[in-house]
Design brief:
This protein folds into two domains: about 30 residues, no CATH class; about 45 residues, no CATH class. The chain is mainly beta and about 80 residues long. The chain is globular, with a radius of gyration of 15 Å. The chain starts with 6 loop residues before the first strand and ends with a helix. It has one helix and seven strands; from the N terminus they run βββββββα. About 5% of the residues lie in helices and about 45% in strands. A three-stranded antiparallel sheet has the order 1-2-3, with no helix packed on it. A two-stranded antiparallel ribbon has the order 4-7. The protein has a two-stranded antiparallel ribbon with strand order 5-6. A hairpin with a 2-residue loop joins strand 1 and strand 2.
């Protein structure tokens, strides 16, 4: 529902992280429960489901690739 409300995400074992959608989809996904260590490369895709039927997948092919940050991420990438 595109109302901007924060809702729990779903993982293979139940609720995992948070998501909100209005005009932009926002996700908060904890790395530890997914056993993603710092430095791990991740491909992320979002599936829109109705029951077990996939209505849409973004991106349609592949995924959004990123590296799980380590303890130096903020020091290296941010300046105040």
């Amino acid at each position: 529902m595109a109302d901007g409300a924060s809702r729990p995400g779903r993982g293979p074992d139940g609720e995992l992280g948070l998501c909100a959608f209005a005009r932009v989809l926002e996700l908060s996904v904890p790395f530890a429960p997914l056993q993603l260590a710092p430095g791990t490369t991740v491909d992320l895709a979002v599936q829109v489901l109705r029951g077990e039927l996939e209505l849409q997948r973004l991106p349609q092919v592949g995924g959004l690739r990123f590296t799980v940050p380590d303890e130096d991420f903020e020091r290296v990438h941010w300046r105040v």
